[in-house]
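Wed. Picked up where I left off yesterday with NAD-dependent epimerase/dehydratase domain-containing protein. The coffee machine is broken again, so keeping this brief.
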Amino acid sequence: MSKRLRVAVLGPKGQCGACVVDELLSRGHSVVGISRSPPKTWQKPGDYGGIPCNFSDIKGLSKILSDGNFDAVVSAFAPPLTDLKAVYEVGVEGHGNIKMAILRSDYRGPLVIIGGAGSLYYKNGIQLCDDESFAFKHWYAWPDVHLDYMSTRMYDHGQRGFATFIRTFKWARGNRENPGWFSWLFRPFASLFLQFSRKTLTDSSALGLILCSRAALTMWEGVRETSWSFLSPPWQLRDKGIRTGKYEVHVDDTMGSAEYGIDNGIYNEDMAVAIVDEVENNKLNHKHWTCTGPIGLKEW
Ligand SMILES: NC(=O)c1ccc[n+]([C@@H]2O[C@H](COP(=O)([O-])OP(=O)(O)OC[C@H]3O[C@@H](n4cnc5c(N)ncnc54)[C@H](OP(=O)(O)O)[C@@H]3O)[C@@H](O)[C@H]2O)c1
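Structure written out below (tokens, as returned):
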């Protein structure tokens, strides 16, 4: 093991943050979870503590980072998805507040920020979130298994409406692409639903999370006062997967060197391995990167 580190995780109980905390603790590091209501204790053994802080309190977060004697910081912040129309604004504010708090603090060690796949570049120099018909066309290209995963994840998060939308989307696509004997009977409904899906999935209110993550990348690019690396997970990130410890890093150069992440995926558990490796080794300073790994090893 590398030297024992003291690591702050911003957003410790989220989908990504929780895996990062698990991975850090399993390697014997000490973790401080920071968010509005971080868990006070962790469900797995290890040196964990929580400090409550709303990131809108830039001064408060800055003081926690200055006083915390941290060796590394991981940001797994995301705006709540409860009000879709507010996601972009709340997300941009949150990422901006984190940036200001870090720059105003005395902390200058490694920082890994988790953003979104929409910021990855195609070889033609266009970012995924700027591609034509984003995100409808890109959902349409997902394999069935990923739509099954997304729908189950939404049920797990209590978003039943969204989960049903995803199941119906999968059915309508199947009706069009893999018709059976009687599919023509339901074709008008399938076509209507796909039209509705196109409208929904290309509407700006559905893209808030992806676009605020891109804004976060823009905020950090060019900053040289402190260490940072920006991770855009691959498009098919799946939680509750398997930790294989296998992953590949793809560094983005805005000309598509990390394009592989657009068509591929990783389990959250393996992404946490990549993040903690970066925390320990700090090899991707000032880089935008993604990491891919095996998926489809269980139900999805
Ligand atoms: N394929 C992809 O590209 C992909 C897929 C999934 C996630 N992601 C990205 O991964 C990152 C993390 O997402 P996630 O799904 O893990 O998020 P999440 O599950 O929604 O968790 C978000 C965390 O942020 C904290 N938080 C929210 N507002 C806060 C505030 N005002 N002050 C302090 N803490 C706050 C929450 O804790 P409290 O409630 O205690 O405050 C929570 O721990 C995001 O950038 C997201 O876009 C990317």
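Quick read: The CA atoms of residues 99 and 219 lie 8 Å apart.
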